[in-house]
Design a protein that fits this description.
Rossmann fold, elongated, 5-stranded parallel β-sheet, 12 strands, about 300 residues, 7-stranded parallel β-sheet, alpha/beta
């Protein structure tokens, strides 16, 4: 399937997608470290802009991209793209939400195990000559209640993995939760407050919107059990970090695991240095398999969209 056009790739993506685009006949300019001034000067003759999370596609960039037909995100969310303005200009906005499904889900389970079994503390203790066997009494996932905030593709997959550990599932979403899935995993559907009050682990899988910004705040954290753990691999702004700091430092909840932060790289050092938090540097989708798949999916979607619209 051959198509014509120019593609600018503004962030690092797997080579497989670049190869697919070139084989289809597209002229690809791969500039993974491009800065805004250069992008503004380069984008005028491009038909497609491809980004990950580093590059922000604002109204200013869209206005400069007079020929652009497609803006594509090699990832899940679209919060770094002004989608409303792009669509008002007739530009198709694409992402590769399906590509990170398994990678993100596995990291959530990994963080849950790290929290429940004190794995980071055990590792640090051994490396610093301390044998903390008696101090590190953990808890099992079996029989615990996992609250899933946002029961979309990733939330559902996390639930399936959690069921393998014989966990019980509670789900909340502003959209209707698939009934076949509810029956499959035996999920209890409820409101957010009830979920937080009854969950031993809470994992967030919602997009960043005006509704979800600081969805987890001082009020919602106050509903959680003092023995409960919070995990976030969605978007950092979902959680009010100041409220989380207070909840953790005052032992109002047992712990948290964050892969995403309000500012990245994170600057809230007082939060990062708490003993009951586990952190990772936005790596939920950072597996070889997920990156290859995301790059492939976006390349194929771009080509198909160009073919359909020519």
């Amino acid at each position: 399937m051959q198509v014509e056009g120019r593609v600018i790739i503004c962030d690092t993506i797997d080579d497989v997608g670049i190869s697919i685009l070139k084989k289809a006949g597209l002229v690809v300019s791969y500039k993974p470290d491009i800065e805004i001034d250069e992008l503004l000067a380069s984008v005028g003759d491009c038909d497609v802009i491809v980004v990950r999370s580093r590059t922000k596609i604002t109204k200013t960039i869209i206005d400069a991209a007079s020929k652009v037909k497609i803006i594509a995100r090699v990832g899940v969310g679209l919060d770094n793209i002004d989608t409303n303005y792009a669509q008002s200009r007739g530009i198709k906005v694409l992402n590769a939400a399906e590509a990170a499904l398994n990678a993100v889900s596995e990291l959530v389970i990994g963080h849950m195990l790290a929290l429940s079994r004190n794995i980071p503390k055990a590792n640090d203790g051994i490396k610093n000559g301390r044998w903390l066997k008696k101090e590190l009494v953990g808890s099992e996932l079996k029989g615990k209640y996992l609250g899933i905030v946002g029961v979309g593709n990733i939330g559902r997959n996390v639930g399936r993995l959690a069921r393998c550990f014989r966990m019980n599932l509670i789900g909340y979403d502003i959209f209707p939760i698939n009934q076949d899935y509810v029956r499959e995993v035996g999920m209890i559907k409820t409101d957010l407050k009830t979920l937080l009050e009854n969950s031993d682990f809470v994992t967030c899988h919602v997009p960043l919107t005006e509704y979800t910004r600081h969805l987890i705040n001082s009020e919602t954290l106050s509903y959680m059990k003092p023995t409960a753990f919070l995990i976030n691999t969605s978007r950092g702004e979902i959680i009010d970090e100041e409220s989380l700091f207070r909840a953790l430092s005052e032992n109002k909840i047992a712990g948290a695991a964050l892969d995403v932060f309000e500012v990245e790289p994170p600057t809230n050092t007082k939060l990062l240095h708490l003993p009951n938090i586990v952190c990772s540097p936005h790596i939920a989708a950072q597996t070889k398999e997920a990156q290859e798949l995301a790059s492939t999916v976006i390349a194929e979607k771009v080509i198909q969209t160009l073919v359909t619209n020519r």
